Amino acid sequence: MEKWLESVYSDGTAEFVSNPSPKLNEIVKIRIRMYADAPVKHVLIRSLPNGAERLDEMHPVKTERGLTYYEAALRVNENRVQYQFYLVCEDVVYFYTQKEITTYVPDHTYDFVLLADYVQPAWVKDAVFYQIFPERFCNGDPANDVTDGEYKLDGWETIQMKDWNAPALTWPESHCVDFYGGDLQGVTQKIPYLKKLGVTAVYLNPIFVAPSMHKYDCIDYLHVDPHFGGDEALAELSKALHDNGMKLILDISINHTGTSHKWFNRDGIYFDKSVGCYNNPDAPERKYYFFNEDNTYHGWFGNDNMPTLNYTSEDLRDAIYRAEDSVLKKWLKPPYNIDGWRFDVADVLARNDAVQLADELWPEITASIKAENDQAYILAEDWGDCAHYMQGGQWDSPMNYYGCGRVIRQFVGEPDLFMGRHPLLKDVPYKMTAEDVQNRVMEHLAKLPYAFWENQFNLFDSHDVSRLHNNPKVNPEEYRGAVFFQFSLTGAASIYYGDEANVDGVTGTNEGCRYTMPWDKDFENGEMYKLYSTMAHLKQEHKALRSGGMKFLYAKDGIVALARFNGEEAFVSVMSTNDVEKTIRLPLGAIGASGFKGDVFGAELNCRTLDDNAIELTVPAHKAYFMECLLK
Fold this sequence. Notes:
- With 632 residues, the protein is an alpha/beta fold.
- It contains 13 helices and 32 strands.
């Protein structure tokens, strides 16, 4: 395609939509830009009011930094308004959607989309999250520690780890009952540390009463585990975070409970057997689960220890999210005032063979949460393509493995996180190409209304995957590139606790990514801390990295260059996974820039100007840069 097409750009930010959050029947102005000398005769915007195609000509309204902006009015006549652009040249018409430019009429899959009256959790796009696995972060109150043999889980006695710095036990050694003593008081005590690092929001893995150290086997949704400090500790933590300008979201599984949950209570360990439905077929909670006539039941993923909840029960819906004293509402209210929920295994919630209720349930859950706090963030665990949940009225974001974590980890040489689990796929030595990276990211984002780009929870490490830096096969400089890429994507960035401290761990097991935070080490003078702290503060300080546009400038030859920009500033991240040096062309003119001020971390740049719109950058093998641009 012709070179000028590299400059064609529009998005859903305020630079290209006069009101990115329009009301129904509001008239908004839509803009698109391209090089001032682009050989276009006409620019049209195609919309579908009431299902009928409409084409309106756009007119030039300004030229700035070598880019001409075209504008047209669009009435938001429906709850969902979608559009694309036609670029009319002498002998060809180009069609531009969120994903790409084609010479054929595209379908509507990747249209630009505006949602009328959608209330976006506006704080998310600015956020640097810090994910904390509470049991392994900080022991703020040794008096509440689990002791040796205090109780049993599936026959295994609890183990009190006396040495905070001892490696996490393996599953055969611990059966998830090895406790170091981390608690919410410890998180509260470390708020100054988090603030210094550049964190603006905390995501806590489950904290409700449960026998395991991971707490996904909940036995009481309505109370914080006493070994984490109880309800009062959460109220104190929430207040302290909010007093420091930070947000808080909690993790919960409402797909299943533990067998010891008071609603189920199979073995009578924590409650008398007169409580719960397993031993009492006439108990009202019996309808909360999927029971067979012989008292067997459905467990999540075939796991008998985690019985699946049955949302055909109206009483269960009331208990979980509808009633004013329901589980989800309780923690959104004072004195806890959490800022959102992360839903474990959200992809399978209310989906059980013939009982498929997800599309009914999620709008109800969302409406209930947003009625309590319209800025609450709904974060859902889904590792794959889940665009249908992000069209308004359901999720705000998935855990963005699909468009971030799985992509970047495969690009630096790991197997795909899902494919690596399958015996027929895990040993195929395919390394993701730069073109694959761009296509995968844009296929994910371009299916979404732009507001949901800004909601994305971008991560590559978590409690469910080995830490990338613990893989000895990953080049340390490519790891830096992975962090640059993560912070360059539209949306929030998430740091998994301890990554900035180069925390120890092993690959291949969940236990291996849940080592304790190494507070005894002087990690704040280390390169990893400098990397994360610098990126976190850059995001806070520069609007382009929070609410600016995003564009791939280069994606081939094992090198990815991604830009973030607005009318006042621009940044470009570059990462190479090549074994050899490469010289690449970067069309900086497409983002209104002419060159670089320098690399933020002080790396020397080898570049030269090619013309008014492009420079050449020589990228050494495996090198990563994060550069601030000079605007025209």
